[in-house]
Amino acid sequence: MLPRFGHTLLSDRRGQLWLFGGYSLSHGPLNDIRLFDTKTNTWTSVEITIGYNNEATMPKGRYFHAAELVHSTHEIFVFGGFSQSPNRTLSDFWKFNVKNDRWTLIEVSWRVMEVVVLAALALAVVVLNGFANAVGFDDLQQG
Predict the structure, then answer these.
(1) Burial 77-109 (b: 16+ CB within 10 A, else e)
(2) Could you tell me which residues come within 8 angstroms of residue 54 by beta carbon, excluding any fewer than 6 positions away?
(3) DSSP code of 25?
(4) How many CA atoms are closer than 13 Å to the CA of 87, on its beta-carbon side?
(5) What pLDDT does 56 receive?
(6) Domains plus CATH for the chain?
(7) Contacts of 96 (CB under 8 A, 6+ apart)
(8) Closest Cα partner for 12 from 90, 89, 71?
(9) What does each C-alpha distance from 115 to 47, 62, 88, 110, 129 come to in angstroms?
């Protein structure tokens, strides 16, 4: 596994850890998913499910993004972050189903910020205090 920074690490109810993305000094922004088994202390690479068009639809490599695992739906939500080019911010919103290893791009109708903190609630995902180059910091958005 590549050394990285700016990644996210999420824990599920089985005590496993899900790692997504980050920045590698040798490879740039990453979009891989790794699973750490806390019982065996081993990392495994998660193979992404190929879609109907034989392409793996998935987010671009990113770092300093926000992510949260919603236990009730077995999904990881990823929002924004930085990608290639200096100061290139992202405002896309993705979910990863941990049962079928498939990414889905989420179209959002509410105004989103370019870098955010996600909080998972029982039936909602809330975006808190985002930052956009054009408007600076902003408040709560719920979708």
Answers:
(1) bbbbbbbeeeeebbbbbbbbebeeebbeeeeee
(2) none
(3) T
(4) 3
(5) 57
(6) 8-142 (2.120.10.80)
(7) 20, 33, 75, 76, 77, 78, 102, 103, 104
(8) 71
(9) 27, 11, 11, 15, 9
| Buried-state track 10-49, b at ≥16 Cβ within 10 A, e below 16 | beeeeeeebbbbbbbeeeebbbbbbebeeeeeeeeeeebe
Place of tokens 């926000």: 66
pTM above 0.70, yes or no: yes
Structure tokens at 114: 């370019």
Separation CA 126–CA 119 (nearest Å): 5
Contact at 8 Å (CB) between 118 and 126?
A: yes
pLDDT values of the chain reduced to their tens digit, one per residue, 143 residues: 889 999 999 999 998 999 999 999 999 999 999 999 999 999 999 998 766 655 558 899 999 999 999 998 999 999 889 998 766 888 888 999 999 999 999 887 655 443 344 444 434 555 554 555 555 555 445 54
Rounded CA-CA distance 142/27 in Å is 34
